[in-house]
């Protein structure tokens, strides 16, 4: 059986350190503060907001909510971002995406209006540049791939000289995860929908980060003994038995029952990467507050 890389263990350790850091900041008269900027009442946004608020309370980060209607104008949204940028008591901002449909064409302009130093989830071009250049003074990496790195670090998985395969090339997970793995001195291959022989490439990897977002896409044909599998994706499996004994539950990319008996270690879904992301968000806020 594979070792389960449990997000709770990583999160508990992160939270303990963050509580110490927020206490130290308060002794200096600094209250680490995160602005949450939301347009409309998207259920997934509301769910993440509740989780983030709960985590913030636990570690000592203050939350300030900026709630705008779904039909908000571009001008009003930009004015709200400008207000957050100008408020020195706010150290970070999380703006929920995707933005409402009528703002989709302006999403780049809107995201880049954020001050990169307050951009907690890598929404600006400058923040992305920081990830790709390995710099930590141009904003912050996306919380999800950063959570993957926290898991690897916590469990003492040394990436130096290892072959790592990232499945997926999105700016949200795939590309930044590849850059961050290279920053850990891994040799990285990125596979995507146009890749030929993805299974064969994955079998040669020491570490697999699967962010395809396709249920059951990572099967036993992709893995071998000795590998570390970080399953990032959150998919809906209508056939999976949930906690209440009924059908329908979240699942990753991996066919867990096939992959887990083969590999050395794997993150479960749920209970893996996703559970670490809000602690990483809080870590970014604390880091921003410490730079003030």
In short:
The protein is 39% helix and 18% strand. By secondary structure, the protein is an alpha/beta fold. Helix 2 (43-59) packs across helix 10 (274-290) and helix 6 packs parallel to helix 7 (174-183).
Give the secondary structure arrangement, pairings included.
Elements: E1 3-4, H1 7-27, E2 33-39, H2 43-59, E3 62-68, H3 74-86, E4 92-95, H4 107-111, H5 125-133, H6 143-154, E5 163-167, H7 174-183, E6 187-191, H8 198-203, E7 207-210, E8 228-231, E9 235-241, E10 247-251, H9 256-259, E11 265-266, H10 274-290
Parallel strand pairs: 1-11, 2-3, 2-4, 5-6, 5-7, 7-8, 8-11
Antiparallel strand pairs: 9-10
Overview of the molecule:
The chain is α/β, with parallel strands linked by helices and 292 residues long. The strands form three sheets. Strands 1-11-8-7-5-6 form a six-stranded parallel β-sheet. Strand 5, helix 7 and strand 6 form a beta-alpha-beta unit. The termini are far apart. The model has no long low-confidence stretch (mean pLDDT 96).
The count of helical stretches stands at 10
What is the overall shape?
Answer: globular
What structural class is derived from the secondary structure elements? alpha/beta
Largest sheet: 6 strands, parallel
Secondary-structure element order, N to C: EHEHEHEHHHEHEHEEEEHEH
Question: How many strands?
Answer: 11
Q: Cα-atom Rg, whole angstroms?
A: 19 Å
Mean pLDDT: 96
Approximate helicity band: 25-40%
Q: Are there runs of 5+ residues with pLDDT below 50, and where?
A: none
* Strand residues, percent: 15-25%
Distance between the termini: 47 Å
